[in-house]
Amino acid sequence: MNAPLEGVVVADFSRVLAGPLATMMLADLGAHVVKIERPGGGDDTRAWGPPYASSGMTTYFEAANRGKSSIALDLTLPGDRARAEQIIARSDVVIENFRPGQFARLGFDWETLSARHPRLVYASVSGFGLDGGARLPGYDFVAQAVGGLMHITGEREGEAMKAGVALVDVLTGKDAVIGILAALRRRELTGRGSRIDVNLLSSLQAALVNQVSAHLGAGAEPARLGNRHPSIAPYEVLRCGDGPLAVACGNDAQFRRMTEVLGVGHLAEHERFATNALRVGNRDDLAVVLEEALAGDTAAAWAERLNAVGVAAGVVNTIGEGLALADRLGLDPVYETRGADGRASRQVRSPIAWSPAVPSASSAPPRLGEHTEQVLAWLDEVNG
Q: What angle do CA 110, 113, 118 make, to 5 degrees?
């Protein structure tokens, strides 16, 4: 099966995570992604180490740049800007995450480029949008803070905490891909390209789902609950004989089955625990009773018994243990890419499974400027 984006060319002027992650996902779908980097340093994440991979690159850079060609251009130089314009002219998609206004000052604003290339899809990624937030520098950590995610993350009596990964960058990258794919489809129907703008703050707020809905619909101001859910119980981490167990009971029937497995079936009829609303209101007392029962065995043993009756439960794994679990489940989560010099890079496979199968992006994350000569030869061939 041909890759769904085979033949689509992407000019990637982005750096750090949200933009590069978006273009890597497009590469996974078969697009030819040309990553334009500044000479000398390249993408900021090339310096974000340790840790370093066996290739000598930072593992951070390797996380979001497989399947791309890298060309080093100094966009402050007229000659290199002209080369960048040639790449854009051959591209279906341009994506950039310069500070708002900077890309335009180089002559690459939407109005200019769309006039020259009416079919171009132009995607901008920013921290806080192109209007009132245009002057604000945007990093995931700050977006988590000002957008409210940190306020609802952490223990009840503890300080606000960020998520353990740059989650807002990841969400924004996925939103960018959704917008780009929709714009390519729209181009098929209309013959014209579109401009797509995404920003960290908007992507975060759209992803707050039930938490922001509680504020908008009920006037509530969600707060930190540790590992607990504001509207479901038990939906938290409970202590077992040897350590923690994550348990998620989504309805009364699941709670009944859980209590039967734990040998405390009477709780399903208890006046304080019989319904989800009652359990939410009495979650502290419920946790005490459940942990007394769970203390009799290991978290892994309880997880196996609860899953067997349709109650979601699992031990708290490390990242390595999580990958091993995915492998045991047949998800084949890790594969190896290789560079032209034979270097290997282990990568997490795209989460999208196709039937018939679509090959994963096969080239390793590029060295800075690795494909400059090839890209320039391609441009000369096209222009010749």
A: 100
* Per-residue model confidence (pLDDT) at position 55: 86
Query: Is 122 in contact with 196 (CB distance < 8 Å)?
Result: yes
Token pair 């349709």 in the structure block, residue: 310
Q: Is 241 left (phi over 0), alpha (psi -120 to 50) or beta?
A: alpha
Could you give the CA distance from residue 122 to residue 5 in angstroms, rounded to a whole number? Answer: 16
DSSP 231-269: S-SSEEEEE-SSSEEEEE--SHHHHHHHHHHHT-GGGGG
From 43, 169, 252, 285, the catalytic residue: 169
Q: What is the pLDDT of residues 286-343, one digit of tens each?
A: 999 999 999 999 999 999 999 999 999 999 999 999 999 999 999 999 999 988 888 8
Peptide bond before residue 50 is cis, with ω within 30 degrees of 0: yes
**Total length of the chain:** 384
For residue 109, indicate whether it is catalytic: no
